[in-house]
Amino acid sequence: MTLGVREHRLRIADRSVCLLEGPAGWGECSPLRGYPCDPAAAWRAAEEAARRGWPAPLRTAVPVNALVTRGPVVAAALAGYPAVKVKVGGPRDVELVAAVRDAVGPHVALRVDANGAWDLDTAVAAIGRLARFDLELIEQPVESLEDLARLRRWVEVPVAADECVRSPDDARRLRALDAADVLVLKVQPAGGVRAALELADLAGVPALASSMYETSVGVAAGLALAAALPELPYACGLAPGPGRAAHDVTRQPLVPTDGMLTVRPVTPDPELLARYSLSPAASIHEATS
Predict the structure, then answer these.
(1) What pTM value is reported for the model?
(2) Of 186, 190, 220, 247, which one is the catalytic site residue?
(3) Residues of the domain holding 13
(4) pLDDT digits over 16-39, tens only?
């Protein structure tokens, strides 16, 4: 049987985005510049969504975290979320995390994300300064799995692996090294929802889904992953990035209500596709399966 997939190449703000429209729905390929994501894996993820669709969901809604990248902290913007993530790695980390904890109170989960920016000694010192704010976990404090495994034995805050797990071999090594308490999964770098589910199974630790500043089409793939995980003990990082909601491709973007996202597909609006299109006509790619 021949399956046609229509390709929509877009320029949205400073981001190149390719949306695939197929018999199963819509997929997104939009690797972030400078972020570890094989473009071929991102393309496989988009094709999976367009051609095959995703596994059946195990839940109808997914809890999500709010994101704080810098101050000032606005308490009202964080209200209703079960968790808040703070990007760290700067000179005012303690001040920023303290402000967020004051804003949300003691009962909201608070996590930080260093995106692998620290070496071991810096990570130990930084986590020591931040631990008093009752951190739920710290995402990717150091770059490699080996350093993550060492750090995990030196600090009491649970650690999560993100950028250092991209392949089944990485997931197996995480498990062998006992390197993390949690695995953060992004659909595009993993190569699709099913590939991400395999990584979670191989790693043998709880997983959460996250997005990387995609349109609602890409966020929907992360939502499908979160909905298909056997267990979901953590809120997920699923939402268009800062400022992206104003440049979405749908009139009904995926936005949380009371810290929850409803699991549903996303269909782009033809007028918005035309607005961002790089070419007057989309191309057709055919594949045989």
Answers:
(1) 0.93
(2) 186
(3) 2-53+272-288
(4) 999 999 999 999 999 988 899 999
